[in-house]
Design goal:
Elements (H helix, E strand, L loop, with lengths): L2 H8 L77 H12 L3 E9 L26 H7 L17 H5 L15 H9 L1 E7 L9 H17 L3 E5 L10 H13 L3 E2 L1 H5 L19 H24 L1
Parallel strand pairs: 1-2, 2-3, 3-4
């Protein structure tokens, strides 16, 4: 990365918070960002370390095709690849979704402040604001999903949790139907063919058990709507034992879904991609945001090509 680019990047405000009252988000429109692709292909030899919800029943049920899973077990999630390959189950869901009328040019982001457009992939709808370097093939994926990068759907918002997107109380009454959850609203309005499901914000009282229960509902609803889910690990360890990443890996393994190992991608970075200025153990650094957006694009590219070509 040249000095000019670094200076431009440093003008961004990467102090993303998950409180709607204090959130300041990065504005990618103000700079051209060069991807650090070396980070997205990292390998690791790190040893393993050992709410209320709304009840929503998926409106469509698909049969499951048993396939052989060649991945490492969830307990070895730290060794899973950064960029996932498509799975047979994801291909099956995608195909059925197209038959149901889903848009092959649309994807959705379901998550909290780390997934809003100004923090996650929004720049790819802004020509001239990014540099693909040697990865020019990614432009085809950007073109295919144009218009869906720099947008915040109904299921992504600061402080959102899996429980929040399942509750109609959090839905936007201006666009969502009565008793419709933010998740159902987003799936109805966008009709995405692929969906990122990423919840990272930690709060007192959050437990791996609650997270798993709600995430399972979110995943099943997305599958029922014929959208291929992509799960992801997180960079932080606010819970202290990496239990959330382990649960996420277990869900990806159980449902045979792609998992983007973002945690592994940022391990080579200073402070493992976390912001040393805020030093709160949660917010990402400039380099972390860079790897996040371009890693997300590479993951979308991998899964899209996989479901399209199989």
């Amino acid at each position: 990365m040249n000095k000019k680019t670094v200076l431009l990047i440093l003008t961004l405000v990467f102090l993303v918070g998950c409180s709607s009252a204090t959130r300041v988000v990065p504005v990618f429109e103000t700079a051209t960002i060069t991807p650090i692709f070396e980070m997205t292909t990292a390998t690791s030899t790190v040893e393993s370390i050992t709410s209320s919800t709304a009840t929503i029943i998926p409106t469509r049920v698909f049969t499951t095709t048993a396939t052989q899973d060649t991945r490492l077990p969830p307990e070895k999630w730290r060794q899973w690849p950064v960029t996932p390959s498509v799975t047979d189950r994801a291909v099956e869901i995608y195909r059925q979704g197209l038959k149901m009328g889903n848009n092959p040019h649309a994807f959705s982001k379901i998550g909290d402040c780390q997934s809003v457009k100004s923090a996650f992939m929004g720049l790819f709808d802004l020509p001239g604001r990014y540099d693909l370097g040697s990865k020019q093939y990614l432009q085809e994926t950007i073109d295919n999903f144009a218009g869906y990068f720099n947008t915040d759907g109904q299921a992504v918002r600061g402080s959102f949790s899996p429980a929040s997107v399942l509750s109609p109380l959090w839905a936007n009454p201006d666009v969502c139907n009565k008793n419709e959850s933010p998740l159902e609203c987003e799936l109805r309005l966008t009709q995405p063919s692929i969906v990122f499901i990423i919840f990272e914000f930690w709060w007192n009282g959050r437990t791996p058990e609650t997270y798993e229960k709600n995430m399972r509902q979110v995943i099943e609803i997305v599958i029922a709507h014929g959208a291929a889910p992509i799960l992801a690990t997180k960079a932080d360890n606010m819970e202290g034992d990496h239990s959330i990443n382990l649960v996420t890996a277990r869900l990806a393994y159980e449902y045979n879904l792609p998992l983007w190992n973002f945690w592994l991608a940022v391990q080579p970075l200073p402070y493992h991609g976390l912001d040393p200025v805020r030093n709160d153990g949660f917010h990402l650094s400039v380099e972390g945001w860079n790897v996040r957006s371009f890693g997300g694009l590479m993951t979308l590219d991998s899964i899209w090509r996989g479901v399209r070509d199989n």
